Amino acid sequence: MIILKTNLGDIKIELNFDKAPLTAKNFQQYVEEGFYNGTIFHRVIKGFMAQGGGFASGLDEKDSRETIQNEASNGLENKRGTLAMARTQEPHSASAQFFINLSDNDFLNFKNESVQGWGYCVFAEVVEGMDIVDKMTLVETGRMGFHDDVPTEEIIIESAIVE
Fold first, then answer.
1. Cα–Cα distance between 146 and 153 in angstroms, integer?
2. Structural domains counted in the chain
3. Among residues 21, 57, 91, 103, which one has the fewest Cβ atoms lying within 10 Å of its Cβ?
4. pLDDT by residue (tens digit) across 113-133?
């Protein structure tokens, strides 16, 4: 179990080591290293997802470890309350950033091993605190630098711990 202690409240997450072993291990390692402490949810889109894990306060980008293999073909779906790895257009480019699905986002699921079909790897699920995640969508968002949908009041992961 992972607990994300945010300035809005706690979010408890259960990692799925059976279906996404590399991704779950990668996420837990970032937690154990304290990487997520003080990071923000930098992109929140109501009805879609809340993304975090890559920026400190003020949109100060953090340096992450090497990218990991995309395990999106594991059968897990981008359903409300699941966590998936964020990535660029390159399917195997995920490192530290993740997002929490705010609704069922089937279009993000694995379809095939093409650039368009890889999808986003689900590796965990919120088991407690989805009300806290929903609170994130109440914060006004705007543009900051090159980024859209940035909460105007920072949503901070004060600490992330393995329980």
1. 17
2. 1
3. 57
4. 998 899 999 999 999 999 999
